[in-house]
Amino acid sequence: EYPSDSVDFSIMSGTYNLAVTRSVSNWEDYIFRCLRRIWAKTERAMIFNLQCSVGQKAYVSQNNIYYALTDHILQRARGLFGLTKVRKEVRIPQDVTFIVRRDEF
């Protein structure tokens, strides 16, 4: 769920893609509860990726894949953790990586 000891980096790849609820708000609240616990044990940077919607709203698909709104997640992460940036890979356009750091890039 989260590191038991302090770590320099925390990396979650695909961890939050498969939603166990159809409620976007409940799933996002769960994600950020987990990220807050992880951040408390992270010394340098926390990196996680999400599938992101190309539309105007976040949703959970029929096969329970969560698609976030990039700007919403970015704003919420900055409010909770501070310095947060986004990286996108053009070859996989819906996969967005969020990088949260304790110091300047």
**Mean pLDDT reading:** 95
Strand content: 25-35%
Tally of separate helices: 2
What class, by secondary structure content? alpha/beta
Mass-distribution shape: globular
Main sheet record:
6 strands, mixed
Round the Cα radius of gyration to an integer and report it.
13 Å
Helix percent reads: 25-40%
Number of strands: 6
- The H/E string reads EHEEEHEE
Terminal Cα span: 27 Å
Low-confidence stretches: none
Quick structural summary:
By secondary structure, the protein is α/β, with parallel strands linked by helices. It has helices at residues 24-40, 70-81; strands at 7-12, 42-52, 59-60, 66-68, 84-88, 95-101.
Protein model, in words:
This protein is an alpha/beta fold and 105 residues long. It has two helices and six strands; from the N terminus they run βαβββαββ. Strands 1, 2, 3, 4, 5 and 6 form a six-stranded mixed β-sheet that branches. The protein is globular and about 35 Å long.
Q: What are the defining features of this structure?
A:
single chain, 105 residues, alpha/beta, 6-stranded mixed sheet, 2 helices
Q: What is the strand and helix layout of this fold?
A:
Elements lengths: L6 E6 L11 H17 L1 E11 L6 E2 L5 E3 L1 H12 L2 E5 L6 E7 L4
Parallel strand pairs: 1-2, 2-4
Antiparallel strand pairs: 2-6, 3-4, 5-6
